[in-house]
């Protein structure tokens, strides 16, 4: 092989390797950009605004927040009291962060709860809130509170330990890969 032909072959090989390196680098940059966009993408955040008194049913705002941010978002309860006057079903959540900084206070309307609580499918058990999904991260920070007004129910039911249709306050339903 002549020296001229050898140099031409080496030049072509060099150009080929150079083009491969440029293409590989571009693919790596595009992949890094895609990963960066995905990892830094802001999660949609819904702050539940409380109504401020038991005359307002905050369950409506709670439901709306989970409908809007329950798939890949974040739901934040402020350090306020939320008046829960109606049943909730926030199941089917996916990859959601929930922060409870305040108090969820269920109403004392025993007639409402006895007639409207959600059946749980066994015995006579019902619930006031069905909550569930996958990759749910629920934090209470050591002070977030669920207040089901237990004393009102105790006074009402007396010695009956399993009063028919007396709701459980919260039922975690069909939930996996989650932390509470």
TrEMBL record:
<keyword id="KW-0964">Secreted</keyword>
<feature type="signal peptide">
    <location>
        <begin position="1"/>
        <end position="24"/>
    </location>
</feature>
<keyword id="KW-0732">Signal</keyword>
<dbReference type="GO" id="GO:0005576">
    <property type="term" value="C:extracellular region"/>
</dbReference>
<protein>
    <submittedName>
        <fullName>Alpha-L-rhamnosidase rgxB</fullName>
    </submittedName>
</protein>
<dbReference type="InterPro" id="IPR012334">
    <property type="entry name" value="Pectin_lyas_fold"/>
</dbReference>
<dbReference type="InterPro" id="IPR011050">
    <property type="entry name" value="Pectin_lyase_fold/virulence"/>
</dbReference>
